[in-house]
Specification:
The chain is mainly alpha-helical. Among the domains are: 86 residues, Tyrosine recombinase, N-terminal domain (DNA polymerase, domain 1); 68 residues, no CATH class. It is 47% helix and 5% strand. It is built from 8 helices and 4 strands. It has a two-stranded antiparallel sheet. Strands 3-4 form a two-stranded antiparallel ribbon. Strand 1 and strand 2 form a beta hairpin. Helix 3 crosses helix 4, helix 3 packs across helix 5 and helix 6 runs antiparallel to helix 7.
């Protein structure tokens, strides 16, 4: 049983209201207004926790973006009350406050994915409020690429203990977290192979350097 959001002065008004609800139910468009009372912060937090298959690094990034860029402005807003003008204002405020367009786009895409689940799976809202044209686009500047000669010169210029790191990240295509987690047993000079068994993960927003190690599958390169 559900109560109407207001009382009606005449029976005819009540009948029109009921007819509208019945039509929405037949079309599959009726949404229980009570479900949309959950806040954006609570719903998005559960959404992140319930996503299967996310890498620890991705979970850390999502939680950081929710805590730093979404919750301060939209966290207390009920999901059912979130609308496109509010999302547009939130995104514009991020950029105005100095958040890079790349990070603003990532935060917007996260919020859009969360709201898409609210629409398609949980059925707590009828349509996704994240409908701001261009808000999901990012145009990062192209990073310069070093030549082979510049890489060798860099390896010669750094302290000798860092030389292998420079060469491996460049020519073996290892990520920083992978190369910093290598141990002596991972490198076979006779066979000319490098075995990647683990990688360091940075905990976003903590300034903790290379972070904690995370074991991964062994592979040769």
């Amino acid at each position: 049983m559900r109560s109407a959001p207001q009382t009606f002065g005449r029976k005819a008004e009540t009948q029109r209201y009921l007819a509208l609800l019945e039509a929405q139910i037949r079309r599959g468009e009726w949404i229980d207004p009570g479900l949309g009372k959950v806040t954006v912060e609570d719903y998005a937090g559960r959404w992140i926790s319930e996503q299967a298959g996310l890498r620890p690094r991705t979970v850390e990034q999502y939680r950081y973006m929710l805590r730093r860029h979404i919750t301060p402005s939209l966290g207390d807003v009920p999901v059912g009350k979130l609308d496109t003008p509010m999302v547009r204002e939130w995104r514009a405020r991020l950029v105005a406050d100095g958040v890079s367009e790349t990070m603003a786009a990532k935060a917007y895409r996260l919020l859009r994915a969360v709201m898409m689940t609210a629409v398609n799976e949980d059925r707590i809202i009828l349509r996704n409020p994240c409908r701001v044209r261009g808000a999901d686009k990012e145009q990062p500047k192209e990073r310069p690429v070093l030549t082979v000669g510049q890489v060798v010169a860099l390896a010669d210029a750094v302290p000798r203990r860092y030389r292998a790191m420079i060469l491996l990240t460049t020519f073996a295509s290892l990520r920083f977290g992978e190369v910093t987690a290598l141990e002596r047993d991972d490198i076979d000079l006779e066979a000319g192979t490098v075995r990647v068994r683990r990688a360091h993960l940075e905990v976003v927003g903590t300034g903790s350097g290379s972070g904690r190690p995370s074991r991964g599958p062994a592979c040769g390169s």
